[in-house]
Batch of 2 targets.
Target 1
Amino acid sequence: MIKKDIVTDIVEEWLEGKEYFLVDIEISPDNRIVVEIDHADGVWIEDCVELSKYIEERLDRDEEDYELEVGSAGLGQPFKVVRQYLNFIGKEVEVLDADGKKYRGILKSVVGDSFVVSVNEKVKIEGKKRPVTMDVDHTFDMNEVKYTKYLISFK
């Protein structure tokens, strides 16, 4: 089986000096290699083709056969790396926390492995009869949420 660290080194070598970043590499037991890259402005198919050729030039099919797929992380897919969170600051996201509760709001900030989402929700204020709708900041740890993903809007 082809080792993930070998493919990772090849991809990182290709990424050097580019604004793309690695999101994920998966290698199945039957050597199906899936490489996901991303870029703040989106991923161009030509760059996926270039990376695919770059990987193929460095892996020997005669030594070990494999299937290779190179693509983008995809809009609407859960974030996998910190850089994806950074790219979507100021945008609407959905978070599913560890307890199964969903939050929809604006991704405000990212610090280390934690991030803040501002959610418009009803809050009971002392002295008022009715709840008031206001923005409430929720802080999450990336390693403790089930997922965070960008909400695509067609408005």
Target 2
Amino acid sequence: MTEAGAPPIEVHDMTVAYGDKPVLWDVDLTLPEGKLIGIVGPNGAGKSTLIKAILGLVPLSSGWIKIYGQPYRKQRGRVGYVPQRESVDWDFPVDVLDVVLMGTYGRLGWFRRPGRRERAQARAALKQVDLLPFAHRQIRQLSGGQQQRVFLARALCQDAQIYLMDEPFASVDAATERAILRVLQQLRERGRTVVVIHHDLQTVAQYFDWLVLLNMRVIAQGPTETVLTEDNLARTYGGRLNLLSRVAELVAREPGEE
């Protein structure tokens, strides 16, 4: 169910604390539909906690979160999630195709097993991320970049309206980064909302059309060309940022310039 006109993700007056230590404070956020959205901020800014709060994985100290105007528990099937690769036990004895098939479980329910249709969807997702030849390989035998693409394929099988991705570009090779970006752009073209935690300021302007700058609070949010400014970055990173001039140069550069 969707409330008419409701945004994909809306966060109001949200605070999250671990014990007595606030991690996110008075967060207000409204994310638009059909955009490729970057969440950017320094280490410890609460970026992963924000994603986990949206997914209902951490309790809120105050405030609320709505997915298309409803609590997450009522919209669970409309949200796909790609976790950090480091948070996964890659020694679990399962092959690539089985991992990707897990993305279909939400639609099947508890008592149905994936059938021919679901296997075809899983293979199509693997082809989309250039991993179909690895379908029957054990996941522990894959490189880090290949493992990241497996989880992206699993999320694609969910056929969600919203995708939340926790640093999918972290520690991957250039070919994997290009493959992931291509898939994210295809999702956007299909009208999906894609929310990505990202750490590389030098690629923000090229990758995202909407940006959230976060450091415990939302410093700025909106179209990338208006949010990605030297002043906003200084407010977000403080004295820890040494790339301001380089980022400002990238933002000012004309498309296609080297």
